[in-house]
């Protein structure tokens, strides 16, 4: 397809010559004549690839996936023996994606109001990916990251400082989206349709009314901001700051992502070739629908399967995994020396009926509506949004409904699931409030939060594993009765890793700038107040 061709050529042009991280920050061979609209579609396509394929092994840590018994143990993932090569590709992938948005932002800021929309998008998407970098690695190159000529060995900025600046940049994005609305009010139809075409998240060439498209971007920006604020909500002394920042969201009137309005990218995925299918789908199936070696490697994880069974989930286990011939879900604990083979365990996805891999041309989620609803429920329980536990209860039910719908099921099954678990503190907010966590338990004691975060965890199975890991580290939900360490015979520490290690590519080119990690992968991040 023409749109795909444009994206691939642009991405190739911008990535040419990138052989190490500092080249990714600023490529002298990058064609400066490329217009921001073309780069935008390439950047959003890169975002889809980054969020759909990076940190993939975290699914095993989160109890979603396990290694098949057909394969030998992977010590790095199962025993937590991380090394500097473990997340190197993920680190570089994110910076390559960010370099596109930095190009868009710098070009747009140096231009008249006609590019205000592009400045707004660049600021939001940089916040999305830099938050992931901070949540994975802690301190990372930020203020000097994209000027290799001036800063060939960029400094590592403080993670908290980066977070604070991302919030500022998200506020700035709202200004630029509003400026774009003013510009579009008198712009030609050609200008508006062109920007709509290259906006492959909320436009996609459908000639959407510009006011509606911009409103969705503003709600997305507000949701990203709420996500950052909730991640740092347990940091001492941040309560007043969070209150004031959420007040700004209320003041801008844009709200958050609501039910049915997920932020998702689709550049025109097709089955013409393996390179043109959805990037997450491509990990497991070819464009013709044949399983890849990766599909054979990963199996259902017993932690998630046990939770589905314990809560009598009527649909999701059969959509997230492929049932065996007898209709059951076969699973392993990751790392179990006695892991069962593929003939006795369930593969990921169930394309014949829906699920996480329902078709090769499916949208790639950036932030789902159900993730946003869970975020709003959390903020409500913490007192930052109005309503209290009853409102949070409603938001959780809506989130579960949207998760079922995304997996190609229906809201009726979701409501049956929800009402049948009315006394379960891992499902129902009011039940969670009524059954407080014991004081000795190392977890967030906010009343009702157990239900919100546990349901968010199970909803993100195979969808946003990285966010589930972040939520687990910052709240300790799900509790150990639901999720614990792998079943390998030995571990570096009997705890899921707290962070990724800095990549070998950085030690090779920028070693003097890299912070020292006192306890390696068990050095907590600044917002992690529970890890020991």
What would you call the quaternary organization?
Answer: single chain
Question: Helix and strand string, N-terminal first?
Answer: HHHHEHHHEEHHHHEHHEHHEEHHHHHHH
Low-pLDDT segments: 1-26
| Helical residues, percent | 40-55%
Portion of residues in beta strands equals under 5%
**Structural class per helix/strand content?**
mainly alpha
Number of strands: 7
Strand order of the largest sheet: 1-5-6
Number of helices: 22
Mind telling me the C-alpha Rg? 22 Å
- Give a quick account of the main beta sheet: strands, pairing sense, barrel closure: 3 strands, mixed
Outline: globular
Global mean pLDDT:
93
| Ends apart, CA distance between termini | 51 Å
Description of the molecule:
- There is one protein chain.
- 49% of the residues lie in helices and 4% in strands.
- It contains 22 helices and seven strands.
- Residues 1-26 have low confidence and may be disordered.
- Strands 1-5-6 form a three-stranded mixed β-sheet. The chain has a two-stranded antiparallel ribbon with strand order 2-3. The protein has a two-stranded antiparallel ribbon with strand order 4-7.
- The protein is globular, with a radius of gyration of 22 Å.
- The protein is mostly helical and 532 residues long.
- The protein has helices spanning 2-15, 21-25, 36-53, 58-61, 75-78, 88-109, 116-137, 159-184, 189-198, 210-231, 239-252, 279-284, 293-297, 302-310, 317-320, 369-381, 388-406, 411-420, 429-434, 449-459, 465-475, 504-509, and strands at 65-67, 140-141, 156-157, 263-265, 298-301, 331-332, 364-367.
- The longest helix is centred in the N-terminal third of the chain and has 26 residues, at 159-184.
């Amino acid at each position: 397809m023409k749109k795909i061709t444009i994206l691939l050529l642009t991405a190739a042009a911008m990535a040419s010559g990138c052989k190490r991280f500092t080249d990714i920050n600023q490529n002298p061979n990058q064609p400066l004549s490329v217009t921001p609209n073309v780069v935008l579609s390439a950047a959003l396509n890169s975002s889809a690839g980054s969020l759909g394929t990076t940190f993939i092994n975290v699914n095993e840590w989160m109890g979603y996936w396990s290694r098949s018994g057909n394969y030998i143990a992977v010590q790095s993932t199962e025993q937590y023996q991380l090394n500097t090569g473990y997340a190197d590709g993920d680190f570089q992938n994110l910076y390559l994606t960010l370099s596109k948005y930095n190009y868009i932002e710098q070009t747009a800021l140096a231009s008249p109001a006609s590019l205000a929309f592009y400045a707004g998008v660049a600021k939001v998407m940089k916040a999305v990916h830099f938050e992931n970098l901070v949540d994975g690695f802690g301190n990372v190159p930020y203020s000097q990251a994209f000027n290799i000529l001036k800063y060939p060995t960029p400094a590592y900025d403080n993670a908290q400082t980066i977070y604070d600046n991302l919030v500022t940049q998200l506020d700035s994005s709202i200004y630029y989206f509003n400026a774009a609305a003013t510009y579009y009010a008198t712009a030609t139809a050609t200008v508006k349709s062109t920007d709509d075409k290259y906006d492959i998240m909320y436009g996609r060439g459908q000639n959407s009314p510009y006011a509606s498209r911009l409103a969705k971007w503003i709600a997305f920006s507000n949701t990203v901001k709420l996500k950052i604020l909730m991640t740092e909500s347990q940091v001492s002394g941040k309560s007043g700051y969070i209150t004031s920042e959420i007040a700004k969201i209320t003041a801008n009137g844009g709200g958050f992502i609501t039910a049915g309005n997920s932020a998702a990218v689709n550049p025109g995925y097709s089955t013409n070739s393996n390179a043109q299918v959805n990037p997450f789908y491509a990990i497991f199936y070819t464009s013709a629908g044949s399983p890849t070696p990766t599909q054979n490697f990963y199996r259902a994880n017993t932690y998630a399967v046990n939770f589905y069974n314990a809560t009598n989930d009527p649909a999701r286990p059969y959509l997230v995994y492929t049932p065996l011939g007898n209709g059951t879900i076969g699973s392993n604990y990751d790392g179990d020396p006695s892991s069962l083979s593929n003939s006795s365990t369930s593969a990921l996805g169930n394309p014949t009926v829906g699920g996480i891999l329902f078709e090769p041309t499916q949208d790639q989620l950036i932030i789902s509506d159900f993730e946003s609803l869970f975020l709003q429920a959390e903020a409500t329980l913490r007192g930052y949004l109005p309503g209290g536990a009853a409102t949070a209860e409603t938001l959780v039910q809506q989130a579960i409904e949207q998760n079922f719908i995304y997996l190609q099921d229906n809201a009726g099954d979701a409501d049956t699931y929800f009402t049948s678990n009315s006394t379960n503190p891992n499902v129902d907010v009011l039940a969670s409030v009524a059954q407080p966590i014991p004081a000795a338990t190392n977890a967030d004691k906010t009343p009702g939060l157990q239900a919100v975060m546990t349901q968010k965890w199970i909803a993100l199975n195979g969808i946003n594993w990285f966010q589930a890991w972040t939520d687990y580290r910052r709240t300790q939900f799900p509790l150990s009765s639901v999720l614990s360490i792998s079943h390998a015979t030995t571990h570096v520490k009997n705890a899921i890793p707290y962070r990724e290690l800095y990549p070998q590519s950085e030690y090779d080119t920028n070693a003097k700038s890299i912070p020292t990690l006192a306890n390696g992968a068990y050095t907590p991040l600044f917002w992690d107040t529970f890890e020991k």
